[in-house]
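Structure first, sequence second, as always.
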């Protein structure tokens, strides 16, 4: 396999050294399509793509010949798509971003890897965290994943009845009950009912009915 590849920023130094114009082929080219407006009280669905650390066959910007590589067809059922990886700063491959934007789905990346050490570097001074924040803004603008402000929270998979209801109550007090996304791990690691399709339904019903 050859051709240009989209790769994450793996270290603090890589983020500091990043600059526009070095990987033009990794930029998404499809603008975010508009969708029909929905009620503010309608729940949204978020899909978190967590595939063996990310950047598998999908890292090849011009595609690959593996017919068994992971793909996703049902864009009409989701509102947001997270490209999750086990690296410091994830830059989603443009093939994913283009597909999401074509279907009116927001594309998000993640930050990962040795959080305590990274936070110590990030917060060592006002200059360091401002520089880092400014650089992340430049990166998101450059690759077209940009959004103005944080508008939701994605809960960990290991929620229980009590913590889920607490989150519901806190979000409702702020008028943002639909801005909390509840994770279900398809591998069933620590989830109620074993995760996936076996996750029990009572907490989800509680989310919709309790005040």
């Amino acid at each position: 396999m050859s051709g240009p590849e989209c790769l994450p920023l793996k270290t603090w130094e890589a983020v500091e050294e990043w600059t526009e114009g070095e990987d033009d082929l990794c930029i998404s080219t499809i603008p975010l399509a508009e969708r029909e407006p929905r009620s503010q009280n309608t729940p949204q669905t978020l899909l978190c793509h967590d595939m063996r650390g990310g950047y598998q066959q999908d890292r090849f910007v011009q595609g690959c010949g593996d017919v068994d590589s992971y793909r996703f067809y049902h864009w009409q059922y989701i509102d947001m798509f997270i490209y999750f990886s086990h690296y410091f700063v994830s830059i989603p491959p443009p093939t994913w971003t283009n597909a999401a934007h074509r279907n009116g789905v927001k594309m998000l990346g993640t930050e990962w890897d040795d959080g305590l050490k990274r936070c110590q570097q990030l917060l060592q001074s006002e200059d360091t965290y401002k520089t880092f924040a400014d650089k992340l803004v430049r990166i998101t603008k450059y690759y077209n994943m940009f959004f103005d402000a944080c508008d939701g929270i994605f809960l960990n998979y290991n929620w229980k009845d009590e913590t889920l209801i607490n989150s519901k109550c806190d979000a409702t007090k702020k008028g943002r009950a639909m801005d909390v996304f509840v994770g279900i791990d398809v591998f069933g690691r620590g989830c109620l009912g074993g995760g996936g399709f076996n996750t029990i339904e009572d907490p989800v019903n509680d989310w919709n009915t309790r005040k």
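Margin note: The beta strands are 46-50, 80-84, 106-108, 153-154, 180-181.
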